[in-house]
Design brief:
The complex is a heterodimer of chains A (about 625) and B (about 130). In chain A, a hairpin with a 4-residue loop joins β1 and β2. Chain A has three domains: about 200 residues, Aldehyde Ferredoxin Oxidoreductase,  A, domain 1 (4-Layer Sandwich), CATH 3.60.9; about 170 residues, Aldehyde Ferredoxin Oxidoreductase Protein, subunit A, domain 2 (Orthogonal Bundle); about 170 residues, Aldehyde Ferredoxin Oxidoreductase Protein, subunit A, domain 3 (Orthogonal Bundle), CATH 1.10.599.10. Chain A is about 40% helix and about 15% strand. Chain A has a six-stranded mixed sheet with strand order 2-1-6-3-4-5, with helices on both faces. A four-stranded mixed sheet of chain A has the order 8-7-12-9. Chain A has 25 helices and 18 strands. Chain B has one domain. In chain B, about 20% of the residues lie in helices and about 15% in strands. Chain B contains four helices and eight strands; from the N terminus they run βαβββαβαββαβ. The longest helix of chain B has 11 residues. The relative contact order of chain B is 0.24. The C terminus of chain B is likely disordered. The chains are: A alpha+beta (about 625), B alpha+beta (about 130). At the A-B interface, α4, β13, α7, β14 and β16 of A face α1 and β2 of B. β13 of chain A pairs antiparallel with β2 of chain B, so a sheet runs across the interface.
Chain lengths: ~625, ~130
């Protein structure tokens, strides 16, 4: 049964392993995945907890419905972030989360630091610590191939780090398969700090549901509802690269470190249609009907022989437009390079964009960089990726992420666009006000995926938006009206998706007709027997988000930190479709007020006692 | 009738395996299903759905004194039959073979195959209905 899955506490200091059932109250309150991860992390979290300390837990959490007939089988990986110094949390699809569940494991809490390199092997409820000396120095593809070959089992699923994680590059990813990555907030560096090269899982336990026939019928109804949306079919054909063109048309892109926000007519070089030349079909994560991932193969030219999955719009933006690089073939190569080293493509792109602008402005020069850093110089980008992952020369400085600013001088600080010490992504949100607020309030630092409130971009009738959001919301994306409400609404929903292990694309991401609380409630009941009403699930989302907020509050963060890079407020977009757009400080503050009020947080962004009591959050 | 496969379209989502086991044994276990997605997930990323091809000449039951028609309708098979299959298309897990019985003419796997890699067209009946 789903609820029989266990939680394992593994201390790598001495190899002690404790396996326990999951408290039913914890399940009801936090579901699984990101939700239970946060409940666990909150027990360890403090402002003086060093992310590289053995005391910092690295927590893996499969979603409550991962491994079932659902809409994705994702896993959340949570810790204190060495990249931001605050809350760390990343989420990946692929097969790893489902394999954890098949092995009877729901959550792993890994503390301590192994005296020698090790990997964990989990098989049908048993957990073993194995020597990993021979795996050190291998990239994330090589290590997976070697483990499978050594075990003579091509079905084991592996979450691993590459050289970047071993070298404690602060924005290292945990990777699985060709493409899946729990990449944001440096979870791979935490894994490296524990001398843990990989977590290897193999499971084939039955997942039983109370009434299979009823469950299957409900699943078919929900599947039909989802597949009836146009958005899902577009994703299943083109994947997230389909977003590149509208982002360019709106002026939502980051070009040359957000000095521009559109590529104009050159955009077609990086759009989904350009990827068709390399795409060889679409693939899915475990139990996902959407199949939004390209697989690609480069058959000729400089990068001949490279094949893989992806890339996502976020990676095309981060290693393409953001760096002034309009060569899509090189982007495929650079993304593959980051994936192999185990680097977060988004952060890698942002930090390189930052130093490229510093180079452009003469704030740094070859004396420190040793290489030229001109926009669109593919050779330099490639070399810098190698140097970062290997922590050599100038790359050793950049490997520190935002902390590198201490080495690059005060004049460098403002050009690293960041929120809560975490770099912004492949976009520029000056034009879409809901996106801008969502970036500012995200509990893991600058992140579009915490809320991703994009329905106002579709121009839907306002009565449709009001019905969905429960209050007035402007259907103009450049308007501030009701956008606090939008962000609040999506933050809660996405927290629930992450706790269930569902993919955001199956939920209200860009279609108001996709799945949400009502369908979640039904499938939770039929898969687990837990009865939670749609309203109770909304509260679950609020509980998870508010608990995350409380950890930020412990770090001393508050309203002053729910803000945007100065460039967003002070520099109107100079040209292109978003020309003249900027964020008004006054109106931004009004959005924040509305947002705090809806969350039940005070004017300073601190959850009130009443809210904590209502949500039954213990601190 | 047979289930037709276009393996280039297979996304490797495993939903076919999941509904196969769920509808036959009442549990989700992709290794207790009669269909198996063979994956090259660290290489070409290609997926190959594999299941009983419903051969006219059933090498799998050679030497057995059984009725072909009756055996074709069974889900649980002896693993010796899997060993005799020239296409390695009958799945075995824990010494138990799982054979595609076409769900009695209403194959569940085709109904969840959103990329339409699996198709089953009974004469006079809709094809991959429902979600697909």
């Amino acid at each position: 049964m789903v609820l029989d899955r266990k939680i394992a506490f593994i201390n790598l200091d001495d190899g002690a392993i404790e396996i326990s059932p999951i408290d039913p109250t914890l399940r009801r309150k936090y579901l699984g995945g990101r939700g239970i991860n946060m409940a666990l992390l909150s027990k360890y979290y403090s402002s003086d907890l060093d992310p590289f300390s053995p005391r910092n837990p690295l927590i893996f959490g499969a979603g409550l419905l991962s491994g079932t007939l659902g809409f994705g089988s994702r896993v959340s990986i949570t810790s204190k972030s060495p990249e931001s110094g605050h809350l760390g949390d990343a989420n990946m699809g692929g097969e790893f989360g489902a394999e954890m569940v098949k092995a009877g494991v729901s959550h792993l809490v890994i503390t301590g630091k192994s005296p020698r390199p090790v990997f964990l092997f989990i098989k049908n409820g048993d957990i073993m610590i194995r020597d990993a000396q021979k795996l050190m120095g291998l990239d994330t593809i090589e290590v997976q191939k070697k483990i499978r070959a050594d075990m003579e089992d091509d079905k084991v699923q592996i979450a691993c780090i590459g050289q970047a994680g071993e070298n404690l590059v602060r924005f290292s990813a945990i990777r699985s398969g060709l493409k899946s990555a729990a990449a944001r907030t440096g979870m791979g560096a935490v894994m490296g700090s524990k001398n843990l090269k990989a977590v290897v899982v193999r499971g084939n336990m039955d997942i039983r549901v109370p009434d299979p026939e009823k469950y299957l019928r409900a699943y078919h109804r929900h599947l039909k509802k989802l597949m009836d949306t146009k958005w899902v079919h577009a994703l299943g054909t083109n994947g997230t690269p389909l977003l590149f063109r509208p982002a360019n048309t709106l002026g939502l892109l980051s070009v040359n470190n957000n000095q521009l926000t559109s590529l104009g007519e050159k955009s077609h070089l990086l759009e989904a249609e350009a990827l068709d030349a390399f795409s060889t079909g679409m693939v899915s994560c475990f139990a996902c009907p959407i199949h939004c991932r390209h697989r690609f193969s480069i058959k000729e030219g400089k990068y001949k022989g490279i094949n893989g999955e992806g890339p996502e719009y976020a990676s095309i933006g981060s290693l393409g437009a953001k760096l002034g690089n309009l060569d899509l073939e090189s982007v495929l190569y650079l993304v593959d390079l980051c994936n192999r080293y185990g680097l977060d493509t988004i952060s890698t792109g942002t930090y390189i964009a930052w130093v490229m602008e510093l180079y452009q402005r003469g704030i740094i020069d070859r004396e420190i960089t040793k290489i030229s850093l001109n926009w669109g110089d593919i050779g330099s980008i490639e070399e810098l990726i190698h140097l970062i992952a290997q922590r050599k020369n100038f790359g050793d400085i950049i490997a520190e992420g935002a902390y590198a600013k201490d080495s690059l001088g005060k004049a460098s600080h403002d050009y690293l666009l960041r929120i809560k010490n975490f770099p912004i992504e492949m976009t520029d949100e000056r034009v879409i006000k809901s996106f801008a607020l969502g970036m500012a309030t995200s509990s893991r630092g600058a992140c579009h995926m915490r809320s991703r409130p994009s329905l106002d971009v579709l121009g839907l009738p306002e009565d449709v938006l009001e019905k969905l959001y429960g209050g007035p919301v402007s259907n103009k994306y450049s308007s501030y009206r009701g956008k606090g409400r939008m962000v609040w609404w999506h933050e809660r929903l996405n927290a629930v998706c992450d706790a269930l292990g569902y993919c955001r694309f199956a939920s209200v991401f860009s279609s108001p007709h996709a799945l949400q609380y009502q369908q979640f409630s039904k499938l939770i009941l039929l898969a687990t027997g837990i009865h939670l009403t749609p309203k109770a699930l909304r509260d679950t989302g609020e509980r998870i988000y508010t608990l995350e907020r409380m950890m930020l509050i412990k770090d001393g963060l508050s309203r002053k930190d729910d803000t945007l890079p100065a460039r967003y407020f002070d520099e109107p977009v100079p040209e292109g479709p978003a020309q003249g757009e900027f964020i008004s400080r006054d109106k931004f503050n009004e959005m924040l007020d509305e947002y705090y009020r809806l969350h039940g947080w005070d004017k300073n962004g601190v959850p009130t006692k009443r809210t904590l009591q209502r949500l039954d959050i213990e601190i | 009738m047979k289930i037709k496969v276009n393996k280039k379209k297979c996304s490797g989502c495993h939903l076919c395996e999941m509904v196969c086991s769920l509808s036959h044994i009442g549990a989700i276990n992709i290794e207790k299903s009669a269909i198996r997605i063979r994956k090259d997930d660290l290489g070409t990323s290609l997926n190959t759905p594999t299941f009983c091809l419903q051969c006219k000449d059933m090498k799998c039951i050679e030497g057995e004194h059984v009725q072909e028609g009756l055996e074709k309708r069974k889900f649980f098979w002896d693993k010796e039959r899997a060993e005799r299959c020239p296409f390695d298309a009958v799945m075995v897990f824990d010494d138990q073979a799982y054979h595609c019985d076409l769900c009695g003419g209403n194959p569940q796997c085709t109904k969840v195959c959103t990329p339409k890699a699996l198709r089953y067209n009974r004469r006079g009946a809709p094809g991959t209905s429902g979600a697909a």
